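Protocol step 4 of 6: structure prediction from sequence.
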Amino acid sequence: MRVQAVERDRCEFAEFYAAAADDCLRVVVLVVGNRQLAEDLVAEAFTKAWLSWRKVHQLDEPRAWVVRVALNSHVSWWRRHRREVALGDHDRATTGTEPHGLDSALMAALRRLPVRQREVVTLRLLLDMDTATTARTLGMPTGTVASHLHRALAALRREIPSFNDQELTR
């Protein structure tokens, strides 16, 4: 009986990983700005998800749990390494870090947003989470999520005026 439960959990987790890994990595790369570090953080988060799979698979949005764990790990990593990295370099992306399908101008503009705005944009728009789930994931009120999203989109529209034209023609 126990072997069947373990096998079922393994299959469920494998399906979850296959469906969610790219989305989670894309979000973490956008927030962290370094693909190699993001890959490490996401791998660590998925490891923790597997270790807590019985709890995680019952959540409404397990992808959000993985992203939150990865971002929390990034904070811990940054605290340990902040003295080793020049102040302006910790948030700079290396070449070739653009997630698939995102315009390089958009990536650059996203990296210039404050971290909380960047987190809200990536969770709301890239993972397609609703406001309430995003608020729970980030530990903030729904009004704050809406405010961060509004400010971030306004900043992105100012920085990339060509996207405004695309919005108007649709």
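Step 5 (inspection) to follow. Residues 28 and 112 are 15 Å apart (CA to CA).
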